[in-house]
Amino acid sequence: MKIGDVHREGITEVTAADIASARRMGCTVKLLAICERAADGASVTARVHPAMIPLSHPLASVREAYNAVFVEAEAAGQLMFYGPGAKRLPDRLRRPRRPRRGLPQQTGRGHRAR
What we know:
By secondary structure, the protein is mainly beta.
């Protein structure tokens, strides 16, 4: 799959009226990235777009700078992985540390710069 194969739509066209309408229907609006096995079973489809999801769905509780991945699998059922997005990482995890005297610099990924 190439990036051009992925339908992409942002949230710029979502209006306050859309959000209010979703709320009246017991839903919320979220930007979703969806990847599914195609009907042929041999390929996948992917798309990114705003969608209304019921407030009862686990993804509806994801707020602010948090992200989640919701997976539905035949063998495992429904799973959700949830945590802070990259902007919520402490500075010490986002950029390399300054080298201390006489010690090699940490790169932030467990490797030392030479």
